[in-house]
Amino acid sequence: MKTVLLLMLVLLLSRMGLSAQETIATNEPPRQHSPHRATLYSLALPGLGQAYNRKYWKIPIVYTGIGTIGYFALNNRENYLKAKEAYIYTFNNEDYPIDNDLIGKYNANDLREIRDYYRRNMELSWIIMALWYALNAVDAAVDAHLFDYDVGENLSVQLSPQFAIPMPQQNPVFQPPATGLKISVRF
Hints:
2 strands
């Protein structure tokens, strides 16, 4: 299995055009950066779409999220199985020796609530993992769409305080001075 995954990774990287040799100039127009390709790469292996987009700093973020969510999912699964075993043991009034520290501390109703709590958290962790995986692909697609976007020096955003004082003909009792934040965007 590891050999197959390694072979797939090598093939994907070779398709990206990574090479240690010098490239030869041709008369062909430069290839467009493909959002479709970036999305497929990210779906095949999380972080590969970010590498295709040359956003290497995002790859550790992707894998940190996967690792963190995976840790919580597996930890909740382990606690769920432990609580499930204790619940079945207590509910059936079993008397054989068992190595579970929850038995004897809680009654069957409490063990059922503990079991349901960890089951909910385990399932929620897997749903969040799927959303993280999808977000990885969406991020790669958006980055690929904006890959050739030119941010010129004419683009600016300025924030400044704004004070509104009532006009003399207005009644200041009903219109107190107002303060706010002014956002100026220049293209």
